[in-house]
Amino acid sequence: MEQVSSESNRHDLTDATTVEGDGEALARGLSSMLESVIKDFDSKAIDTLNSQDKLSGSLDRLVQELDQLLENAPLPFIVQHASRISSVKQRVSSLNLVLKSVQRRIDNIDQMISTNITQEKTTSETSS
């Protein structure tokens, strides 16, 4: 009877260790997946910011050229197009501010996740 009880305890310990190991593996897998998703999003966000910066620069040049054109020949249709372009420029600038804010938030989340992973690794290495 003691032998059965002893075997049962060994199986329970083995099962608990397996579940613990599976949980850690699952956590590492999820962490790795989230890290790759965040890095991918981060890369795309940086590309978008660069594109927005280029667009903003192009709009600035266009507005300057239109201003020079308006000084030389103030035609009504040119004035109308200049105001539309100025409006687009303002919207692009606002969008850039929003994108930069989102990027900062993502960077903060990424840093928090990285810090948490580092702390978990240190804790698991210390307890081993």
Number of domains: 1
Low-confidence stretches: 1-6
Structural class: mainly alpha
The end-to-end span amounts to 34 Å
Work out the radius of gyration. 29 Å
Number of helices: 2
> Strand portion, in percent?
under 5%
Main β-sheet description: none
Helix content: over 70%
On the 0-100 scale, what is the average pLDDT? 76
Number of strands: 0
Q: What is the N-to-C order of secondary-structure elements (H for helix, E for strand)?
A: HH
Shape: rod-shaped
Family: Belongs to the SNAPIN family.
Keywords: Coiled coil
Organism: Arabis alpina
InterPro entries: Snapin, Snapin/Pallidin/Snn1
Topology:
Elements: H1 2-72, H2 76-127
Could you characterize the architecture of this molecule?
The chain contains 2 helices and no strands. The chain has one domain. With 128 residues, the protein is mainly alpha-helical. The protein is rod-shaped and about 80 Å long. Helix 1 runs antiparallel to helix 2. It has helices spanning 2-72, 76-127. The model is unreliable at 1-6 (pLDDT under 50). Helices cover 96% and strands 0% of the residues.
